[in-house]
Each structure stands twice: as structure tokens, then as C-alpha cells.
Write a structure and sequence with these properties.
The protein is α/β, with parallel strands linked by helices. It is built from 6 helices and 7 strands; from the N terminus they run ββαααβαββαββα. The N and C termini lie far apart (42 Å).
Length: 266
């Protein structure tokens, strides 16, 4: 466990790029003071991190950025989602509260206890969730100011076999799942993503994971902010549950770079 990992990083891209690659779930780092509040033993925690981490997605985004004709900006979470999950609503709007996986998880992927009963989420929200949200909001605002638009592309992965925590785990598990929002995902954005990832055996919509990330300041009100989630099934590029990446990672990075270029030119 890292004693003082950086909570997040905004990696600059080209000044004229509207694209922001958001990588929220790639890290395994947990500060020591947060580790103390997790009831799992070390071996069980490592196993949980294998299941819950979107392994290698930060590397995927970095490779795509290097390959793109106009480099996108990247916002990368430096902490595990077991610290806080920046993509959850921090209140009762969050459907994952039903399985103990709101902004601060209380249950594991297998619905076992992660934190003690009655653990107060407020300190973790104050220290990690809200600063992250403010920084991500500022990053989107900067793209709007610079280019007049912002396109947030959420980079995720998911297991080939459903885990017990999944609320929609009985649905299709396509090689590429595209998560959409009725307000922020335009038909044009969706079409570009479907074309970019057409070579992996099929794309699907909102199954097993729906939706996409938009800062609450812009959510449902600012059409200049486009958003799409890309969920890559892990057997395309890595050994599951938490093993090394394979050659599929480079091919996927090339596809993501193609999407970035198409969005920059749109």
C-alpha cells in the first residue's frame, strides 16, 4: 500500500483538443490511513483489488494519447476506487448503494463486508471525493474555455464473467460496452465510437454497465459537454482477474486513438 499516493492527475494534451480521457478505476493505491478502515486481510484485499480494478486502463489511455494526431487531455485517478469511487453520486441517487457500493464502498465485489458496520463516509468524501470532483469540473471548464466544447471519454474495463455485485450482470457482455447518457451522448458521438471499436467482435449499449461520467455542474444542463463510457471486456487484453496485459492492449489503444482523432475533427 502506498503511504501518500497522488490522489489524481491532469495530464495536459494539445491546447486545442476538446477531448478529455477520464481514467477513474485503474489504480490499486490505498493510503495507509484508509487501509486501516478496511476489514479485509492483506491477501483478501489483494484479491478484491484484482476484481475491482480496471487494470491497465491508465496505460491504454496513455498509449492512445501518444498515438493520436492531436493529443487529448487525461484525468487519471491515482487512488483505488476502494478509497472513494469518483463516478458515483455522493447521495441517495446512486443505485449502487443497494449493494454497498456508493461513493464509499462498504461491501466487496462478492458482497462481503469491506468496512465496519456504521462506518462514516463523510471524512473520505471530504478528503478525496469532493476535491476530485472539483478538479474534474475545472478540467472540463478549461476545455470549454479553450475550444468551446468538451468531450469526456470514460475509459473502463469489466470482467468476462459477472461478479455478484453487478446489478445488471444477467444482460449481454459484449467485447465493447458503450455507456451512454440521453443528454450528453449525441448520436454522432455514439456512431464515431461504434466505428472506432468495430473490429473487436461487436459493441453493445449500456450492458452490463450503463451511463457515463459528467461533472454535476454540467450534468443535464450543458450540451457543449459530450460524454461516453467505453467498457472493454478484460479478456480482450489481459489475463483475468488481475494479471498482465497482452498484445490486445496496443490494438485497443490504436482504436481509442482513432476515436480521439475523429472527435477532434468533428
Amino acid at each position: 500500500m502506498s503511504p501518500d499516493p497522488h490522489p489524481f492527475a491532469l495530464v495536459p494534451g494539445a491546447p486545442g483538443s476538446p477531448v478529455l480521457l477520464h481514467v477513474p478505476h485503474s489504480s490499486r493505491a490505498i493510503p495507509e490511513q484508509v487501509r486501516d478502515g478496511i476489514v479485509l486481510g492483506d491477501e483478501a484485499l489483494e484479491a478484491e483489488l484484482d476484481h475491482i480494478t480496471d487494470s491497465h486502463t491508465a496505460g491504454l489511455a496513455a498509449r492512445a494519447s501518444e498515438s493520436a494526431a492531436v493529443s487529448p487531455w487525461r484525468f487519471v485517478n491515482g487512488l483505488s476506487r476502494l478509497v472513494v469511487d469518483p463516478e458515483r453520486f455522493p447521495d441517495d441517487r446512486e443505485e449502487m448503494l443497494a449493494v454497498g457500493m456508493g461513493a464509499v464502498y462498504t461491501r466487496t465485489t462478492h458482497r462481503e463486508p469491506l468496512r465496519p458496520p456504521g462506518a462514516d463516509p463523510a471524512p473520505l468524501l471530504d478528503r478525496y471525493f469532493h476535491p476530485y470532483a472539483r478538479a474534474m469540473t475545472a478540467a472540463v471548464d478549461e476545455r470549454l474555455a479553450a475550444t468551446g466544447r468538451a468531450v469526456v471519454i470514460d475509459v473502463h474495463s469489466y470482467p468476462a464473467t459477472a461478479l455478484p455485485y453487478e446489478l445488471h450482470g444477467t444482460g449481454p457482455r459484449p467485447p465493447i460496452c458503450l455507456g451512454t447518457d440521453g443528454f450528453h451522448t449525441s448520436p454522432e458521438l455514439l456512431a464515431l465510437a461504434e466505428a472506432a471499436f468495430s473490429g473487436f467482435g461487436g459493441t453493445g449499449l449500456n450492458s452490463p454497465f450503463p451511463g457515463t461520467y459528467v461533472p454535476l455542474k454540467h450534468y443535464g444542463t450543458d450540451r457543449r459537454v459530450g460524454a461516453l463510457m467505453i467498457e472493454i471486456r478484460r479478456d480482450l487484453y489481459m489475463t483475468e482477474p488481475g494479471g498482465p496485459a497482452g498484445p490486445g492492449l496496443d490494438v485497443l489503444a490504436s482504436a481509442l486513438a482513432g476515436l480521439v482523432d475523429a472527435l477532434t475533427d468533428a
